[in-house]
Amino acid sequence: MTHKIKKITIFLLKIHDGLCDGCYHAAAWMMLALALIISYEVLARYFFNRPTLWAADFTDYIMLYSTFFVSAWLLKRQGHINLTIWTDKLSPRAKLVSNTINSLIGAIVCGFVIWYGARDTWDAIAKNMWLARPVPVPKFFVLGVIPFGFVLLFVQFLRDAFKHLGELRAGSKEEKGPVRGNK
């Protein structure tokens, strides 16, 4: 890799890290807002007999956004649930191969979701679709977070796959032993 391409790659990966961290913090603030909205709804409904029309919708939106905002951040930290019954029995090298394959499959699945999610989001924008809710919102507002979140996941899956491939390559070099020079 040339020096210029390496610098651009590092810059783009820093942007991805910043987006993931920013989305994580936004999701945390959204959870605080969720708690406040639910508390307000309970007070308004049961103490003042004045329920809101908007609380249920906005808690749904917060749950949707926070899920897609935090998923790539969580993947980077290996915080997702793993079924390790099979992989615990593998050798370290086989485990790296399995992790590489899983990351590539994850990236492929993300690619499909990005494609269809972006297509549906664009369709909602082009047709000016709105959700018929007590507080109407543009449909792209709800759909757009899905391809966004999956782009972050896609990049993280690719990063993980390349990391595992690098570990596999480094392990292969170690297994061959040191290179002996001619004396």
Describe what is shown at a glance.
With 183 residues, this protein is mainly α. It has 5 helices and 2 strands; from the N terminus they run αααββαα.
What's the total helix number? 5
| Major β-sheet strand ordering | 1-2
Low-confidence parts = 179-183
Shape: elongated
Order of helices and strands: HHHEEHH
How many domains? The number is 1
Please estimate the helix content. Answer: over 70%
Secondary-structure-based class equals mainly alpha
Structure characteristics:
single chain, 183 residues, mainly alpha, two-stranded antiparallel sheet, 5 helices, elongated, disordered C terminus
Write the layout of secondary structure elements.
Elements: H1 3-47, H2 55-76, H3 92-126, E1 130-131, E2 137-138, H4 139-143, H5 145-176
Antiparallel strand pairs: 1-2
Helix pairs in contact: 1-2, 2-5, 3-5
Structural write-up:
This protein has one domain. It has 183 residues and is mainly alpha-helical. Helix 1 packs antiparallel against helix 2 and helix 2 packs parallel to helix 5. The chain has 5 helices and 2 strands, in the order αααββαα. It has a two-stranded antiparallel sheet with strand order 1-2. The C terminus is likely disordered.
